[in-house]
Amino acid sequence: MQLPLCLLALCAAVVCVSANRTFVVDYENDRFLKDGQPFRFIAGSFHYFRAHPDTWQKHLRTMRAAGLNAVTTYVEWSLHNPRDGAYVWRGIADLERFIRLAVAEDLLVILRPGPYICAERDMGGFPYWLLTKYPNIRLRTADIDYLNEVRIWYSVLFAHISQYLYGNGGPIIMVQVENEYGSYSACDGNYRTWLRDETQSHVKDKAVLFTNDGPSVLRCGKIPGVLATLDFGATRDLSNTWQRLRRFQPNGPLVNAEYYPGWLTHWTEPMANVSTNGIIGTFINMLDSGASVNLYMFFGGTNFGFTAGANENGPGNYLADITSYDYDAPMTEAGDVTSKYQTLRSIIGRYIPLPDVPVPQPSPKRAYGIVRLTSCCSLLSPEGRQILATGVVRATRPKTFEALNQYSGLVLYETWLPRFKRDPSILHVPGLADRAYVYVDNELVGILARETPIFDLPLSASAGSLLQLLVENQGRINYGQQINDFKGLTQDVTLDKKVLNNWNMTKYPLESVEDLLQLVAQSNAPEADAAQEDIQNLKLPRKLLRSGPAIYASILRINSEQELADTYLDMSGWGKGVVFINGENLGRYWPLVGPQVTLFVPAPVLKVGNNRLIVVEYQQAPITQQLVFRDKPILNARS
Fold first, then answer.
1. 23 lies in which domain range?
2. What pLDDT does 20 receive?
3. pTM
4. Which of 33, 48, 448, 511 could form a disulfide with 436 if both were Cys (CB 3.0 to 4.6 A apart)?
């Protein structure tokens, strides 16, 4: 399909404006008008921050080949503004490049800037430092501190993207105001109208503003003067669902802005799967009714690094999201098409013309085989503390990660135990967020966990005198009422009801790959290498790390460009931790509980020559200290 000259210019980062470029809602006739002509979108969600930038173009082309005419993406505030006053717009945060690539693939863009996005991301996309700067902030309300920070963020964001609004010559036809606000208990009308006006001040009439909510919560989700859309999965009563929308919005196009072909998964749960047969009936019925539909997700991708969030399914029921965001989507985590994709493509082709774009072939996969690692050192060793710790804070009472101005990773809380009155005595750690490895005199004595929940541990008087709680942030809550999710020790710790004071807090954010490499180099351990061996039935005896998390390192040697391919790192036999390859944090692993056992490694992360692999393991490791690169994922099992 020949692109308009204006859009070709945009691909070269030059925007030309046509007086006839408009995208509006025709309320009288219940439809959208694009340049004065009736229009409906069949779109798919793809979050740029869940894929390596070098794969964006192929993924977008695969979406266009399915017949989609638009791509929907959230904008993650925390990605672009990781520290107060600091902004990032390169690499995986290069939103403008993503938009230009969408144009090059003949896709319109539906932008969801939040500022709250949920998305199963840490703190729903909010930057953690809001809790550092304003410990009592009331997010998603008319709290003046919150509004001020949103205004600053939006002024920066829209300075980058205003040129890409449809009325300015770009592809962005719609911009969301908030996200599923009807499900948030605050139900703050002043905030909703303020955010509408703030967003409108940047968008003006150059794109359509919209909200998105479940059918039963429109009372607090609908904003006057903003197009309301719904999100829902397969249903046997579509007409009743649309009627719920019509009670709040009598006219306008019918839109399902999140139609679910798959679903999210938490650690310890079986992998969520949604059958193709279960979703096609409602999909066809929506298209028959003239609705516009966005498939969430069409491509899921990966929660790299520490970006995965968590949910609280009722008080005290904490559930951390897995690293993979495969979502049982029509495209796999690697971006390959599935049978679900082919079925949806054949349906889409009945309603809008399929483009003359061949469906891309699956990306190459490679099983690089077994890699043996060498043990470097303990995180809590003098060398580990000296190189990896970013500071020690002393205080009478324990401080949260946010009070320590730390995003993620680990914090070591240490204090001296008082004289025991009983043997054993009960250590009580209420408000633990999220997981604590408990040591006494550098010896592991137990694990406490929010998701279990277990906050009590008997300690023997013979165990020793130095109490050490190494606390892991497993992901801030991304949905519901508890998104002010402070991490670490959020309440006093007691031993037989006696409050423990005078804490040393050592910060291990695990953000500096350079520090990890320095620690490995200093250990002078020989570098292990990959070995092509039988990996079909690998059974690994394990050992508990009793003196703290350990660092392991290895080299994956790749000899030629032809050997570069996507691969999957099988963490069977390992316990819980994170993996870095060539400086890239692939995300959290936890094969002990599953369901995810492998970590996806995109080919662009790898290179010809030596690929440096570092594992930070928190609790157990195979005695053989080995792992496996496979050519297929394991997403629904346990180690």
1. 5-348
2. 79
3. 0.95
4. 448
